[in-house]
Amino acid sequence: MNYKLSYFSFAIMLSILFYGCGSSLKVPTIVDAKSSGISIDTLLKGRELYINNCGACHNLYLPNKHTDREWEETMKSMQKKAKITDSQASIILKYLSTYSNKIKK
Predict the structure, then answer these.
(1) Longest CA span, the chain
(2) At 14, is the secondary structure helix, strand, or coil?
């Protein structure tokens, strides 16, 4: 009985951890749109495309994990595998760039 309770508790904690990581992606705001010069609709669409296309195959990295250049290189290498159009890639990159690491590594 105690074993089943421990397993169940572990499963719940693991589920919360995975949910928490996925939901920690920045949701664009009007302030973000104004400061980046990118429309709020484009930023929201970029986030949606990033989650649905990139997240369908692997865990998502937070946008600030990489620089703009690193995101561009990653997109080039992953775009064909993920069957992402040039237009979709551009929108995803606009979202990622808005929150990317601006300090060169």
Answers:
(1) 58
(2) helix
> What is the CB neighbour count within 10 angstroms for residue 84?
19
CA distance 39 to 37: 7
Residue type, 87: S
Comparing CA positions, the residue from 55, 62, 58 lying closest to residue 96 is 62
The answer for 100, left when phi > 0, alpha when psi is -120 to 50, beta otherwise, is: beta
- Please, what sign has the CA dihedral across residues 66, 67, 69, 71? positive
Over its length of 105 residues, how does the chain's per-residue pLDDT go in tens digits? 565 656 556 555 545 544 444 568 999 999 999 999 999 999 999 999 999 999 999 999 999 999 999 999 999 999 999 999 999 999 999 999 999 998 865
List for the chain the helix, strand, coil content (%; round to 5). Answer: 70, 0, 30
Gap between the Cα atoms of 20 and 41, Å rounded: 24
Question: Of all helices (H) and strands (E), which one includes residue 95?
Answer: helix 86-99
pTM across the whole model:
0.76
